Amino acid sequence: MPLDTRTLVRVADRIRDQVRSMQSSRCSQLQQKLQHVLEQMERLKAIQNRLSVCTSRRWESGMERIATAIEPALREMTYNIDETQHAVRNSTVRVPSLRDVFQDLLQADEEFGNLAYDARNKTLSVTTEPIELEGIYLGSFEIQLRIPSLGEAHRGGVYDIVALEPNPASSNDAVTHPHVSDGRMCEGDASVTIQAALAGGRICDVFQLVNSVLTHYNADSPYVSLDNWNGVSCYECGYVMAPDDSHWCSSCESDFCSECTSYCARCDETTCLGCLKECQLCEESVCASCLTKCPDCGQELCTHCLNDEACPCHEEEEDGDECERDSEGDAEEGSGERQEHSGAEAARVTAPAAAGSTVHADSMGQTAVLPGQRPD
Q: What is the pTM of this model?
């Protein structure tokens, strides 16, 4: 819906107020920059005094130490002077009249044919024509200028870029244009010109400059290059590749590049490095489907090693059974010998003494003694 004259006048008045506020803020910045220059001049003056004392007294070590401090002080002074000159240029921009801003808005409406104002969010917007860059259709974009933010335009974030027919990069949904991420545009070389247009309240120029960035592609500074726009991003390292060059991991169901994938030594399935595990017996890399736990000891083995019953715990169990059988045999043999020895002893003890003999009990048992013999 086209804006009526009364609405345009109100919007123009608000824009002019914000430009005036911006100008006041820039003058405050200029004062700060000048103060930095004056402070740096005082530091250089102090260095000069110390150097003069060292020179008069021929303190060579002191002169060398002070001389090394001069160069970084001069670099800082140069930086402060450049910043001050930039602040001077910004502060000398003329605040436009209400008529100038009004005429500028009329020109923007004529230029784009769809100038709109959102009273609730206080945004002024235009819509671009459908944009196609190097064969990739990106659709139309709405440039939304936040009027209450104009007073802080030097800090950035004054406008948003909204994709009306989103065709984002396949590797990053937030990138709807090679130079737009999360609604913020990388202005590149156009930054200075856009900031100057904002400072002067030239809203039509701002819209035209932003539109120019959107309709041109700078291959040196994209968020995502057009060559990789429809590519696939590696889930592990983020490398963007052509769809035909990607590898699908069946375990975690994600795409990976060739550097981040391998294969299962048992089923030959392509698997990412993060989903491969090593069999604790054969030390082969296998996928989760081909890895299981030994039901006896819980050790992680591949299905091949487990099916062959090659787990070390099986060998230990067999050795243990054999040792147990040997121990039982030795025990039985020893028991027989003890029984035989016990029987012999019993026979010797209980055997009746010969007639007329006497029996003498000693420490080893009872022994028959013939008549006429004395016990030892």
A: 0.59
